[in-house]
Design goal:
Number of strands of chain A: 29
Structural class of chain A: alpha+beta
Helix content of chain A: 25-40%
Number of helices of chain A: 15
Radius of gyration of chain A: 31 Å
Oligomer: homodimer
Distance between the termini of chain A: 94 Å
Largest sheet of chain A: 7 strands, parallel
Chain lengths: 667, 667
C-alpha cells in the first residue's frame, strides 16, 4: 500500500493560515459594485481569523479604479472575529477596495513575552527571538526607523536585566516603528470589490418631468426651448433640482399615432416623442419644432443659472424613418422578406417603433454608436439621463455602457425607467443605474408601504439600488390620485419625498390633473400624442404646498439620506408613522401621513425614544414644519389628528431638550 | 469633442443577455462545497432571466469531480424568475454542478406564432422564420431527428394553409426533436459549485468513545486490543455504530504527566495518549501495551463483524521523544538556542507536547507525511477519524488534507474536535470536515437550545456543518451531568440523539460516572492519566436505557435526518418540545424533554397539525417509544407529565389516522 505523495509547486511558500470571509459591503459576492456618494465614509468589515492564538493585523487597501497605487487604512478588531475599518469617499469616481490580513509576528511576540515577564518567568529566549525579528526589520527599514531599531537592539543586548531589555525593545516609538516595518509574510488579500461614488445628487434630488413642447402658450403649436426658459423660475421656485424632458428628437411620420393613441392621425398631430428619428435626424438631433442645438445649449445654461440641471429621456428604439434604418438596417431584427420587425406584444402591434437588435452581428458598431449618442448630449451639458424601458434591452449592454461613460464622466446619473419584474429591476440597478423607478407608484396602504420600504432601505438592496419615487409619470395616473384628488396629491408627494431622499413628479401634478382614460391608469388627452397648453395658476393647484415641501426637504438633513428610515407605531391603520434619523448630527424628521384621502383620522403615535436615545422622562421639542407650530412632548405617546383637507401629512423636526443642571455664567 | 470608440475583441460574439444569479445551494459564494449524503436528491435553484419577453431554457450540468463528462438535467420555472431542478446523488464522491441557460429561440418563435395565429393574424413571415430555425437544426441533427425535421419542413412548405404549416412544424414529435437540437448560442454558465456526497454514516450514526487501555480487568495494567474485542458485543448491544479510540500510539516519557495531570509522575504512570511518539515510533505506530498492528487489524475486522467501525483519534503533535523530533526538527518551532518550542498558554506550560510548525520551510514534506499517516490507518481499515484540536492547525492544511484523502477514499469521515470560536468551528466544517463537535455540550435550557439548533439546522450552516452532539467527552464533564445525575444523563442522551441525527457519548456515560475535579468540568482520576478498570454492570447504570434509545433511533427514519427539526409550543419553560418530520414518508417523531433534572413538570403541548398536514378534527395516533403505550390525540393540545425519575424524556411516533368513508371488502 504505497502512498503517492502530492506534488506541490516547488519552492512555493506555505499557504497562509489566515482566512478572510464575508467582506462587506458587497453585492452578489462582489460581482457588482456597491453605491455611495461623495462625502460618505465607506465602512468595510470582514471575518478574519486564523488557527490558535497568534495575532494578526488587517488593513483595507483601496484605490481609484483609474489609478494603480493603493492607499491603506487599518482595520480594528470588533468582536467574534469581525474586523472593521473605513475610509472617506472624497471624489466622484469608482473606488476598488479589498481587505488584507497578515500574521503579526511582532504582536504575537510582544503578547507572549509580556505574559511571561508578568508571570515572573525567564524570558531570555524570548528576548533573543525578539532580536531576530528586529534584525529582519532592520533590513527592511530605512532612515530613522533603521536607526531606531539599531539603537533598541544595542540597548537590549547591553541591558543589565531582562526587564531592561524588554523595555528597550518595546519602547513606544520603537513599537510604532515595528508596526510600520513588520513583515507581511503570509499576507492574504480578499478579491477586489468596487464602490461607485456618485455625486450627492444621485441620492438627494427632486425631479420635475415635462414635455418641452408643452411649454408654449399657443394651442396646437409646439412649445420651444425658449418657451421652456420662461418656466425655469416657476420650477425653481417649487424647489426642484432636475428638470427632465421627454425625448427631444425628431419624430417619425410613418405609422405616426394621433391623439389618445389613435392609429389614424390628423395631418397636424405631432406624433409620439418616443417614435424617434426622421429625415431631420436621429438620437443626436433635435425636433425642429423645439429649436436648435444652440437653443438647447442656451437652455441648459439658463437652467444651470436657476440651479436646475436638465435630464434627457433616452429611448433606444427607432421610428421607421430613423437614419439608422437606412444606414444600419442590420442593427434591427430583419425578417425573411427583408423588412424590419416592428415592436409587438402579440396581438398588439406598435408599427411606429422598431426595437434594436443588441445581438446583431455588428453589435460592436451598434454599442459604440449608442455610447456616442450619450456622449453627444454630455458634450451639450447633460449630466442625467432617464432611460426608457431599459428592461427590454440586455442588462450586460447597460453595464458596459454605464461603465464606459463613467470612465470620463463619473458625474453622469442614469435613472432606470423599468417597471417590470423585481429581479430584472434589481439587476439593472446592479449593472450601474444610479437610480431606479420603483413600485412606490402603486404602494398605497400601510402594510404594503412598510414592507416595500424595509426591503428597499433595510436589506442588501440599499447597497446598489436608489429608488427614485414618482407618484405619477406621463404613462401612469394611479387610481389613488384619480380617486383621492387633492388630499392624495398632497400626501403622495410627501410620501415620495420623505420615504425616499430622491423623488420626482410629472408636471401637472401640481395642478392635481387627474382626468383618466376611463377605467385605466392613463391620462386622457395625454401630452404624449398632442401639443398642450397649461394654465399653471389654475384653481385647486398645490404649487405652494410643493414649494413648501421641497423647502422642508432642503432644510432638513435627515430627509436627504436614503437608508436612515425607521417605521414607528401608530395605532390607527390609516396613519403611517416613520422617522428619518441622523443621530450623529442630532437631527430627526418624523413624518405622519393619513393614507385615507377621504376621512380624517386620529392616532396615538409612538414617541421614538429608542431612536432619539431618550426615555419617557425627557422633553422633546417637536416642530411641525408645514405650519411652524412647536410642541413639547413627554412620555411614550402623543395623539395626532390628520384631516385630508387640512393636514393630510405632518412633518416634525424633533429635538431633544437637553437637561442641564447648571451652567457657569460667562463672566 | 470627438468620442473614442471602445475597442472590443474583434469577432467576439455579443455578450449573452441572460443573467444567472444566486445559485443555491452554495457556501460562501461557492468557495466551499456543500454536503449531502448518498441517496439524497440535490435540489439546485437559481434566478435566471433576460430582458424583455423572449423565452429561455435552463439546465443543471453536473459531473463527478474525477470525471470530465457532464450530465444534464432540465430546470423548471418556479416563479418570480426562479428556476429549479434536481438530480440524484448515487455515489460516495464529490460532484461538480453548475447552471446553464440559453435563449430558447424555438419556444420564443412558438409562443409568437401561436399567439398571432390565435388572434387571426397573417403568419406567413413567422412560418418562414420557423423554417429558418429548422434549417439550422437540420445541420446539427443526426439520425431520426434529421429526417423528422426534413419531413416537417417539406410538409410545412407544401401545406395548403398556414394552420396546416404550423401543425406540421409543431407536431409533438417534431417539437421534442427541436428541443433536443435547439441552438445553445448565447448560453451562459454559472461558476462551478461542489457537493461532497458523504456516505450516510456522516449524517446518521451513534459514536462511543473509549480509552482502549481501559478495556482490561487488572488494575494498573494496560488493557489491550484483545480486551477491547470482548467489549464489542456490549457496545453493539447498546446500539452504537462507531467505536472511537483515543490515540493508540506510543506515549513519550520526557516530561510525562502523572495521575490527575500531576507534573511528577510515578514510574508506572502510563502517560497521556496525546503525548504522541517515543522510541517505539510515532503516529503510524502502536503503543506496545495495546498490542500489535496485527492485533489492531484483527480488532477492526471483529468490530466490523459486530456492525461497528473503529474511529481513530488523530492528534497532530508530538512528544519530545517522537521520531520526527530527530528526523525532522525543522517541522517544529525552533528556538534561538536550537531547542524545540513546547506547547504553552502563558504562563501555562505543556512541556510534554511539541506543536507542529505547519509553515516550516519543508511544509511540503510535512504535509505529505501527515497525509501518509492518515493513509496508513486507512490501509489498516480505519474509515473515520476524530481530529484533536484542529483549530490549532491552519484551516488550509485541513482543506488540503481532506480533499487529497477524498480523491481515493471518499468514504473517510473526519470529525472536527474544535471547541473554539464560532467562525473558526464553521471554517473547519467548510474546509471539509464531515462532522463537528459543537456547543451542545453546554446548551442546557430551552431558549438557548432552540436558538442554537435553529442556527445549526435551519440556516445556511446546515449546508456544510453536521454537528455531532456529545453530552460528555473525556475532557468535559458538564455541570448538568455533575448536578443532575441519572435523570440528566438520560435526557441529555435523548437530546443529543434526537436534536441531531449524529451523536456520541464518552464511555462511562452509561454508568452515570460524574465525579468531577472539584469546581471544574473535568473528570476526577481521568483515564487520560492512568489505567482504569470499569465495572460495566455497576448499580445505577443506564445501559438498557441507552440500548432502547438507540433502537428507537434505528427504527424511526425521521430521527435519521439532520435538518428536519421544528420546535413546537409547550407552555412550561422547563419542557422542550420538538418534532422531526419526514412528510414524504408520513413519518414523524415528536420529542418532549423535561430539562429540569430535579422536579417533575407538567406541560400543555401543541399537537403539530401544521407539520402533520392535519387539523383539530383529525385523529393522531401517538405511540410513546420508550414504553410502547399508544394514545389517540385530537384537538389542538395535550397534557404531558415528565418525571425526572420515571420519564425525563418521551419520544412519540405520530401517525395520522386516515379517514376512510368506505372500503370495498376483498371478496
Amino acid at each position: 500500500m504505497t502512498v503517492t505523495s502530492v506534488s506541490f509547486e516547488p519552492d512555493t511558500p506555505s499557504p497562509s493560515p489566515i482566512l478572510i470571509e464575508n467582506v462587506q459591503p458587497a453585492v452578489d459576492c462582489g460581482r457588482y459594485p456597491v453605491k455611495r456618494e461623495v462625502g460618505d465614509t465607506l465602512e468595510v468589515s470582514a471575518d478574519i481569523f486564523r488557527e490558535g492564538h497568534d495575532k494578526l493585523t488587517a488593513v483595507i487597501r483601496y484605490r481609484r479604479w483609474d489609478e494603480v497605487d493603493w492607499q491603506e487604512t487599518p482595520m480594528r478588531f470588533v468582536d467574534n472575529d469581525r474586523w472593521a475599518g473605513s475610509f472617506e469617499l472624497t471624489q466622484n469616481t469608482r473606488v476598488i477596495y479589498r481587505v488584507q490580513a497578515f500574521p503579526d509576528r511582532i504582536e504575537t511576540w510582544r503578547d507572549e513575552i509580556i505574559k511571561k515577564r508578568d508571570a515572573g518567568l525567564d524570558v531570555g529566549l524570548e528576548i533573543r527571538e525578539g532580536l531576530e525579528l528586529f534584525e529582519e526589520m532592520v533590513e527592511r527599514a530605512t532612515g530613522e526607523d533603521r536607526t531606531r531599531f539599531a539603537r533598541a537592539m544595542d540597548a537590549a543586548t547591553a541591558a543589565s536585566s531582562q526587564h531592561e531589555a524588554i523595555d528597550a525593545l518595546l519602547a513606544p516609538s520603537v513599537l510604532q516603528a515595528a508596526h510600520r516595518n513588520r513583515s507581511r509574510e503570509g499576507a492574504v488579500t480578499s478579491p477586489e470589490l468596487t464602490v461607485i461614488v456618485d455625486r450627492v445628487a444621485a441620492r438627494f434630488a427632486a425631479w420635475y418631468e415635462m414635455f418641452p413642447r408643452s411649454a408654449g402658450t399657443e394651442p396646437g403649436t409646439s412649445g420651444t426651448f425658449k418657451d421652456v426658459e420662461k418656466h425655469l423660475p416657476r420650477i425653481r421656485d417649487m424647489g426642484f433640482d432636475v428638470l427632465y424632458f421627454t425625448p427631444i428628437h425628431p419624430i417619425g411620420t410613418t405609422n405616426r399615432k394621433g391623439k389618445n393613441n389613435k392609429l389614424n392621425p390628423e395631418p397636424d398631430d405631432p406624433g409620439v416623442p418616443y417614435a424617434i428619428g426622421s429625415e431631420e435626424g436621429g438620437h443626436d438631433a433635435i425636433e425642429p419644432g423645439l429649436g436648435t442645438e444652440e437653443d438647447f445649449r442656451h437652455l441648459v445654461k439658463q437652467a444651470e443659472e436657476h440651479g436646475l440641471e436638465i435630464a434627457l429621456d433616452i429611448a433606444f428604439q427607432a421610428s421607421p424613418d430613423h437614419p439608422w434604418t437606412k444606414e444600419h438596417p442590420e442593427w434591427f431584427h430583419i425578417r425573411p422578406d427583408g423588412s424590419i420587425k416592428y415592436a409587438e406584444n402579440p396581438p398588439k402591434k406598435y408599427e411606429d417603433i422598431y426595437p434594436i437588435n443588441f445581438q446583431n452581428p455588428d453589435w460592436q458598431g451598434l454599442w459604440n454608436e449608442l455610447k456616442r449618442v450619450i456622449q453627444h448630449w454630455i458634450d451639450l451639458g447633460v449630466k442625467s439621463f432617464r432611460v426608457d424601458n431599459p428592461h427590454t434591452k440586455p442588462t450586460p449592454f447597460w453595464e458596459w455602457l454605464i461603465t464606459e461613460v463613467h470612465r470620463d464622466h463619473p458625474e453622469v446619473i442614469f435613472l432606470s425607467e423599468a417597471f417590470t419584474r423585481p429581479k430584472v429591476m434589481k439587476a439593472l440597478a446592479k449593472a450601474g443605474y444610479a437610480q431606479s423607478y420603483s413600485y412606490f407608484t402603486w404602494r398605497n396602504f400601510k402594510q404594503e408601504i412598510m414592507e416595500y420600504l424595509v426591503e428597499l432601505t433595510q436589506t442588501d438592496v440599499k447597497e446598489y439600488m436608489r429608488a427614485n419615487f414618482f407618484p405619477n409619470t406621463h404613462d401612469i395616473l394611479p387610481y389613488i390620485l384619480q380617486e383621492g384628488g387633492r388630499p392624495a396629491f398632497k400626501f403622495r408627494l410627501v410620501l415620495a419625498g420623505t420615504l425616499s431622499s430622491v423623488y420626482g413628479i410629472y408636471s401637472g401634478y401640481e395642478l392635481c390633473e387627474n382626468t383618466p382614460v376611463s377605467g385605466k391608469e392613463e391620462y386622457l388627452n395625454s401630452e404624449k400624442y398632442e401639443y398642450k397648453v397649461w394654465d399653471w395658476d389654475r384653481p385647486g393647484n398645490i404649487t405652494d404646498y410643493v414649494a413648501t415641501f421641497n423647502r422642508i426637504r432642503r432644510e432638513h438633513p435627515a430627509l436627504q439620506e436614503y437608508d436612515n428610515l425607521s417605521f414607528l407605531r401608530a395605532n390607527n391603520d390609516n396613519v403611517l408613522l416613520y422617522i428619518k434619523a441622523l443621530p450623529e448630527e442630532g437631527r430627526y424628521a418624523m413624518v405622519a401621513v393619513n393614507l385615507d384621502p377621504f376621512q380624517p383620522h386620529e392616532s396615538e403615535i409612538e414617541i421614538p425614544h429608542h431612536i432619539l436615545g431618550t426615555d419617557r422622562t425627557d422633553q422633546i421639542r417637536a416642530t411641525e414644519l408645514f405650519t411652524g407650530e412647536s410642541f413639547i412632548w413627554q412620555g411614550t405617546s402623543e395623539s395626532l389628528y390628520l384631516d385630508p383637507d387640512q393636514n393630510p401629512a405632518m412633518i416634525f423636526d424633533l429635538r431633544v431638550w437637553e437637561h442641564k443642571d447648571y451652567e457657569e455664567p460667562c463672566f
